[in-house]
């Protein structure tokens, strides 16, 4: 009775780990097979290939744990475990090894495609830097920190620039990721960094002004 009870508890916890790992492998298997007709699709596939490469040690440890759990359940003939589940759990290491090999193969087959999109990404970097330079100029000429702007106007401008900078920061993250994927140099985006720093200082001032208005009301 004790053996059955302990076995059911072990099976319950082990099954959750097994299904989570199985689903993770299923997703990666599908993702690395996707088409790479445009830049976004290529980046998606390459990101998955890179993730698989970084997860090798973590996944192997997880599978070792799961394999040992299911071998223990098998050794003590815990009947709540189906033969199919037992078989799938013990075959996870082979599936992971095959997935890793497939991901490396897909990466090698994408060499020509990567070369083509490397040029596209480099051009996107140039265009993004030009956009940042323009935003920086606008910020210095007519942004919330300009002396001719009233505090009330500045509150609105600050909110507007916060939205703009959030979008630009997201674009920067995606672009840096793409540059790394294609082995291109990643240089600092000084215009964006400087504007973010100044925005942080201005935000303290305008927050104080908004609190003053609330207090006055």
| DSSP summary: helix tally | 8
Rg from C-alpha positions? 27 Å
Give the helix proportion (percent range): over 70%
Tertiary shape: elongated
Distance between the termini: 72 Å
Count of β-strands: 0
**Secondary-structure element pattern, one letter each:** HHHHHHHH
In percent terms, what proportion of residues is strand?
under 5%
Low-confidence stretches: none
Q: In this structure, how is the largest beta sheet organized? A: none
Classify the secondary structure makeup into a structural class. Answer: mainly alpha
Report the average pLDDT across residues.
94
Brief synopsis:
By secondary structure, this protein is mainly alpha-helical.
Description:
The model has no long low-confidence stretch (mean pLDDT 94). The chain has eight helices and no strands. It is 84% helix and 0% strand. It has helices at residues 2-31, 39-54, 56-75, 83-90, 92-109, 111-142, 151-181, 190-216. It has 217 residues and is mainly α.
Key features?
217 residues, 84% helix, 0% strand, mainly alpha
